[in-house]
Design brief:
- Two copies of one chain form a homodimer.
- With about 190 residues, the first copy, chain A, is mainly α.
- Chain A has two domains: about 55 residues, Arc Repressor Mutant, subunit A; about 110 residues, no CATH class.
- Helices cover about 70% and strands about 0% of the residues of chain A.
- In chain A, α7 packs across α8.
- The radius of gyration of chain A is 19 Å and the shape is elongated.
- Chains A and B meet through α8 and α9 of A and α8 and α9 of B.
- The structure holds a DNA duplex (30 and 30 nucleotides).
Amino acid sequence: MTITAAGVGSTTREAIAASARELFEERGFAATSVRAIAAGAGVDAALVMRHFGSKEQLFVEVVGASRGAGPELDGPLETLGRRLVEHVLDPERDRERRAYAAMVRASDHDGVRESLRQAARASFIDGLCALLPGPDASARAELIAAQIGGLMQAWPTVGVELLDTVGRQRVVELYGAAIQALVDSPTG
Amino acid sequence: MTITAAGVGSTTREAIAASARELFEERGFAATSVRAIAAGAGVDAALVMRHFGSKEQLFVEVVGASRGAGPELDGPLETLGRRLVEHVLDPERDRERRAYAAMVRASDHDGVRESLRQAARASFIDGLCALLPGPDASARAELIAAQIGGLMQAWPTVGVELLDTVGRQRVVELYGAAIQALVDSPTG
DNA sequence: GGGTGAGTGTCAACGGCGTTGACTGCGTCG
DNA sequence: CGACGCAGTCAACGCCGTTGACACTCACCC
C-alpha cells in the first residue's frame, strides 16, 4: 500500500510506533518488551522487527524525536539562562522531559547513547554555540548542555520536592543564574 | 575453603565481586551477563545469584560503592565551586566517574535508580546542604548536585574534546563559577 | 486470465538471558 | 555417628530479541 501521497504511511506502522512510544515513556526501555509493543498494536512481534529493524532502532525513532532547535534560544542574551530553565521546566513539556530521561536511562545501549548525543548536538548545542560570544563559545555551549542535561535528569526525582519547598520561580531564578554564568563567560 | 580467620569472607565471593566490577565498568550493565561474570570468577552462574540475590543487587553492591562525603567539601565557601569541579574532573578519579556513568546508564532499572539517588544523597547532598548558607540551602544543594551530575555524565563524551580545546583549568574556572552562583545564592 | 513480485502479516523456532530448585560434597557441632 | 548448614553444580523454566519460512493480498504485465 504505502500511500506516499499525503505523507501518511501504513496505519499499522503508526500503531506500532504509538504503542512503542507509550510503553517506552511509561516503563522505560528495559522494562518494555517487543512482544508487549506488538500486543499493544495488535500485531505479531516479528512485524515490529520488519518495520523498525530492532528494538533499539524503534526506541530511537519514536522516543528520540529530533525536534529541532526551538524558539527558546531567541531573545536577549542577558536572560538566556532563565529562558532555558523556564523552557526545560515548562509543565507542558513534561512529555519531552520524560522522553529525554528515558533516553538517558537507556543510554546503556550504544546506539541510543549515540543518538542521544547527536540529538543534543543538532537540536541545542550547535544553535547555542552560534549565539555565545567569546572565543571558547563551543566549550561553554557544551558545559551549558551538561547543566541542562543534569537538570532534566534530576527533575523527575527532585522536581516535585523543589516545587513544594521553593517553587518553580525560585528554581528558574537560581539555576538560570548558574547557566547565565556560562553565557556571560567570566574573564577569569 | 571459606577462610573466616582474619575476618575476610569467602574468597569466591570476592572473586565474583571483582569479576563483576570489572565487567560492569567496562561494558555497562546491559552488556554484561551473569554467566560472563560467573565465568570470570570461575564459578557457576547460579552461585552468583546465591551470593548476591540478583544481577541488579550485585551491580548496586559492587559499582555503587557508597564512598562517604569526601574532603572536597572542606575549605572556604568562596572557592567551593572550583573545588567541586576539580574533584570531579580529577584524572585519578576516572574509575569513580566511570562507575557513576555506568550507574546512570543502568538507572533504567528501578533498584539501580533508587540506589543512585540514595548514594548521591548520603555522599554529597546532605553534607553540602549543611554547608550552604541561606534559607533554601536544601534546594540549592539539590541543584548543585544536578549540575555535578550533568558534568559527570557529559564528561566521558565531551571531556577529551574540551581538554584539547580549552584545557582542564578553563573548564574548572567556567563550570566552577556556574556552581559558585548557586553556592552564593543570588538574592533575586 | 494467469503468472510475477513486492508488501504485509503470522508462526515456530533459535540462542541467550536472569533466575530457580533439586542435588552433591564437605566441614562442624551435638 | 548423624544432623545440619554452607559452597557449589546442574538442568531446567519462562521470557527475551531476533530470524527464516510461509501465507495472503494486490497491483502489474504478457
